[in-house]
TrEMBL record:
PANTHER family noted in UniProt: DIAMINE N-ACETYLTRANSFERASE, GH14572P-RELATED
Chain ranges of the N-acetyltransferase domain: 1-156
Name this protein carries in UniProt: GNAT family N-acetyltransferase
Organism name: Gallibacter intestinalis
InterPro entries in the cross-refs: Acyl_CoA_acyltransferase (IPR016181), Diverse_Substrate_AcTransf (IPR051016), GNAT_dom (IPR000182)
Pfam families membership: Acetyltransf_1
Keywords: Acyltransferase, Transferase
Length: 156
């Protein structure tokens, strides 16, 4: 599998995968209704804005050996005083349903770590839903450990 930065030509597939992700992962949670109900035009605009915001926002695509798009990861970078350098926040990590259970999630995380090392990132962090046992299993197996914090959020 390869990981590469999104290019403008990836807009349609990135929107399609984000729609899949939202439809699957965000259903049943009323807090995310506003996000899930956004139209494709909003996602297209978000894609364009993210590409312009690099290196603060980095969009990566995962492709398998056959060139099929397997998933994506949306990253944010911030300067961390505690890490004495840049930290990377994994905002969204998605492997398409048809490719799950084949090791692409683990391989994708390894590629994200390599990307971080190649870009002098000092720390990787992310948040995950408490009830997402599959994600927790993968993160645990790779050597990440959970820290009990509360994640606060409000749309303004």
């Amino acid at each position: 599998m390869i990981v590469r930065k999104c290019a403008p030509a990836d807009k349609a597939i990135w929107v399609e995968m984000n729609r899949e992700f939202m439809d699957k992962e965000l259903c049943g949670n009323e807090f995310w209704t506003e996000t899930r109900d956004r139209g494709n035009a909003d996602l297209e605009n978000a894609f364009d804005a993210a590409l312009k915001a690099e290196p603060s926002i980095i969009l990566l695509i995962f492709e398998n050996e056959e060139g099929e798009t397997v998933g994506f990861v949306n990253l944010n970078t911030v300067f961390s005083i505690w890490s004495n350098g840049d930290a990377m926040i994994v905002d969204d990590f998605y492997i398409r349903e048809d490719y799950r259970g084949r090791g692409y999630g683990k391989e994708g995380l390894v590629l994200v770590e390599k990307f971080a090392l190649d870009n002098n990132i000092k720390r990787i962090q992310f948040h995950s839903n408490l009830d997402d046992e599959n994600a927790a299993k993968i993160w645990d197996e790779i050597g990440y450990y959970p820290i009990d914090v509360k994640f606060y959020m409000r749309y303004i």
